[in-house]
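A sample follows:
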Amino acid sequence: TGGPVYYIRAAFKGTFGKVLAALFAILITLALGFMGNAVQSNSIAAAFHTAFGIPQWIMGVVVAVIALFVFAGGIERIAKVTETIVPLMAALYIVGALIVIIYNYKNIPYAFASIFVGAFAPQSVVGGAAGATVKLALTKGVARGLFSNESGLGSAPIAAAAAQTRNPVRQALVSSTGTFWDTVVVCALTGLVLVTTIMKNPTINANEVSDGGVLTSLAFGQIPYLGPIILTLGMISFAYSTILGWAYYGERCVEYFAGRAGKSVLIVYRILYIAVAAIAPVVALDLVWLIADTLNALMAIPNLIAVLLLSNMIVKETKKYINDLDAKDDTPVPVVKSR
């Protein structure tokens, strides 16, 4: 057990540490434990509906039932399921994206040109200086980036704390690669898939397709027969593993608050979590995204405050580890009990 709620309490004594830790615990439970769960469940249902015409409410029930089965097995089953499906489906999704890009190979140079011109053309630079444009860029770019790779939110350390490692710095370095694979590889490939597809099929109006999942489905639909299957399996694996991971984040924070009543409170939390997963597919997606983005931004604040205040310690420990990669740090780790 670990993460911001525990390192904040251990590093900052008194009221400041308690308030900051409690604030983070509440916000992450709401942001990822419920609203993030809703977004992922909605995405799964939308992918199945677009690819196979299955009603979204049916997929909501299916997601909830499967989640219930996994939750019943605790963290061991959650870890086993995610570590099995994520690498396989990630590889399958990347292969599928490369097939689409190769299929649209004639448009690759034009896609890169369009991206760079759109970003650095004089009118873009002038427009970027305008307040409304900056606001839109931050709202979409930063919000989607945070939701995708969780950098700075403080959620990933909760999972990293459960890993067995010789040194916490080593685990931190391993965890940091997640941002690269998520953003630089998967998201960049997806972006290239969409741009090349829109260029090859001018009849697709990206401005009229507000759901990114639907737009991606149209792009993968260019692969005969297998395209929709590859995309659907990929999206399901990413979204479903995220649902399980975020459920675990919420559980750790609920346990932090619950203390001795932990088991009873966890049962209530899991019931609510599963209910959200079942209901989310029939809720307006725009509203779900708005609430999720707002809570994500608020959740990052207490974690970033703590990280900045502890930056000297982070630099010191990182240098110490890198300078002697074979060293083992036997310094006792302070234990913070749940209230």
In short: The mean pLDDT is 80.
